[in-house]
């Protein structure tokens, strides 16, 4: 046996675990929150296994998932996007964010948008609207509102909730949106001024300028809207429960396998 092969085998800790152990651990992870965790991809499952003490490569996890038919295809679906742009009905703000979605401090860059969710019988679909306010530092949803009508008052409610619960900061917060009529309205802009927050807007017909928010809606609809909801109450309950799961228990690869809330809490602890 070559010397290098011997030492590789000795030092490679993943050899301590056979496939049966990993399969059992993956099955337990998938059953923890079965409504949602069964939609985990191999990267997030690898992070979850690392948290359980398994030193395993993501390629090995991918192979096991392929063999057992555990790969999720929900994210392949295309969803219809709600468009709140009604032309020039107020003041357009400059694009301060300019697709710089990364930040090293919480509450510095917030994004918001509106999307629609449908329920009821086919052909007679009713809908509700969701507006979340998302912190780009961790992806955490700081506040959200659900309503049958996407009015200016509906949009302002979660904005106020998010800004009013921010801790004292030594920097100003920027709130980025598209050019929807709600965000052009003077009442939205007055709330930002009252809380000394900057306003930023995407360019017209440029959805990539708010790609972080679009990505959140895509994830939410892929993981939650794979079932049909007959009435408004059941849909709103499912939306609220999923956002709670997303904030507190849904791990993210780019957050080192932590949930948004856990990632933010650890960052605050390190900074203290």
From TrEMBL:
InterPro entries membership: HTH-like_dom, Integrase_cat-core, RNaseH-like_sf, RNaseH_sf, Transpos_IS3, Transposase_IS3/IS150/IS904
Residues in Integrase catalytic domain copies: 102-268
Pfam short name (any one): rve_2
Protein task: Involved in the transposition of the insertion sequence.
Protein name as annotated: IS3 family transposase
Organism, scientific name: Pediococcus inopinatus
């Amino acid at each position: 046996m070559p010397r290098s092969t011997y030492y590789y085998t000795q030092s490679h800790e993943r050899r301590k675990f056979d496939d049966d152990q990993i399969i059992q651990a993956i099955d337990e992870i998938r059953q923890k929150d079965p409504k949602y965790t069964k939609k985990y991809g191999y990267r997030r499952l690898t992070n979850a296994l690392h948290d359980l003490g398994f030193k395993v490569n993501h390629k090995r996890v991918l192979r096991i998932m392929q063999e057992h038919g555990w790969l999720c295809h929900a994210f392949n679906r295309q969803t219809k996007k709600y468009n709140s742009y009604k032309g020039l009905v107020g003041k357009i703000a400059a694009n301060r964010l300019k697709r710089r979605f990364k930040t090293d401090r919480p509450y510095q860059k917030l994004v918001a948008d509106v999307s629609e969710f449908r329920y009821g019988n086919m052909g007679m679909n009713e809908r509700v609207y969701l507006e979340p306010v998302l912190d780009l530092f961790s992806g955490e949803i700081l506040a959200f509102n659900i309503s049958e009508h996407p009015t200016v008052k509906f949009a302002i409610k979660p904005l106020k909730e998010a800004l009013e619960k921010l801790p004292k900061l030594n920097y100003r917060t920027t709130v980025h949106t598209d050019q929807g009529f709600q965000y052009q309205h003077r009442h939205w802009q007055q709330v930002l001024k009252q809380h000394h927050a900057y306003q930023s807007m995407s360019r017209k017909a440029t959805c990539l300028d708010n790609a972080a928010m679009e990505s959140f809606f895509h994830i939410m609809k892929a993981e939650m809207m794979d079932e049909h909801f007959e009435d408004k109450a059941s849909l709103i309950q499912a939306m609220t429960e999923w956002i709670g799961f997303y904030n507190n228990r849904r791990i993210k690869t780019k957050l080192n396998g932590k949930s948004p809330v856990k990632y933010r809490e650890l960052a605050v602890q390190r900074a203290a």
